[in-house]
Amino acid sequence: MEITALLREDVPYMDLTSSILDFGPAGAEIQFLPKEPLTVCCSEEAAAVLTLLGAETTIHAASGSRADTEKPVLSARGNPEQLHMGWKAAQNLLEHFSGIATRTRSMVEQAHGVKKNIAVCGTRKHLPGTKQLSLKALCAGGGFPHRLGLSDSILIFSNHYDLLGGLNALCGMLPQVRKRCPEKKVAVEVESVNDAVMVAEAGADIIQLDKLPPSSVREVSNALRSSNRKTIIAAAGGIDAENAASYADAGADVLVSSWMYFGKPSDFKVTIRTAGTT
Fold first, then answer.
1. How many whole angstroms separate alpha carbon 1 and alpha carbon 132?
2. What angle do CA 116, 121, 124 make, to 5 degrees?
3. Cα–Cα distance between 211 and 244 in angstroms, integer?
4. Mean pLDDT for the chain overall
5. Which residue, 154, 169, 188, 232, is the most exposed by fewest CB within 10 angstroms?
6. How many domains does the chain have?
């Protein structure tokens, strides 16, 4: 994240209001306090905004930590104009990305309540331009990236195998695909129980089940486990904190979701007072 560019969006030239009010040399303190319990993200970047303006910052809660209501996550001291200039940029960072981290944490806790070793993974469907911080927030909440991009993993969709002549044609090609990239696992997305079993038998390392209910995930899990296959089962499509436990209980090894990226930001109270006052 380019801190200078972020700040320039909100303060392209000066803080006209603070400049007109002429606060003088008096010192002030700004505090960022959650209005509800949350998982923190981007306290470091928010601090960097204020540091860039010349304020002295203190991070009270690092990314990934939990913060209680009205307990400071970040504070800084400086002159009033510095603090007002950095106020909103810092608040936006904390609110938007703590929101992602908090939603991710809720999904992880629901899934881990049923299956401790299940992975909650965020997709590439984050808001454009926010990838770096969206992934930081995902990890701060206990999740992992599903795919960092198209260059790091093999995930074959129906759009791919339809061009090859269908799923049967792909199954015939899987041994050769695996030979071409022997250090990579090969994942195939399917939309039915029968297709999942067929692809697993053909040698796919990961079966991604798209928009199948937990009952179907359980069918696939039972079929693969009965044949002693070690195929990884990833459930995707419409998964959130409310149904994560059901998918974990059904036998999924990985939950793939974009739900955590979109929702209400966390809410922070921001106070600016003369330094030394309460």
1. 7
2. 180
3. 13
4. 95
5. 169
6. 2
Q: What is the pLDDT of residues 121-148, one digit of tens each?
A: 999 999 999 999 999 999 999 999 999 9
pLDDT in tens, 12-61: 998 999 989 988 777 999 999 999 999 999 999 999 999 999 999 999 99
Integer Cα distance of 130 and 93 in angstroms: 11
Q: CA neighbours within 13 Å on the CB side: how many for 180? A: 8
Enumerate residues 6+ apart whose C-beta is below 8 A from 263. 99, 100, 103
Rg for the chain (alpha carbons), in Å?
24
Tokens linked to 71: 């307990």
Residue range 221-248, pLDDT digits in tens: 999 988 877 899 999 999 999 999 999 9
Average pLDDT on 150-161 reads 95
Q: Which residues span the domain enclosing 183?
A: 113-261
Q: What b-and-e string marks burial along 54-83, b requiring 16 or more CB atoms within 10 Å of the CB?
A: ebebebbbebbbebeeeebbbbbbbbbbbb
Do 92 and 155 fall into the same domain?
A: no
81 shares a domain with 149 = no
User: Do residues 97 and 118 both lie within one domain?
Assistant: no
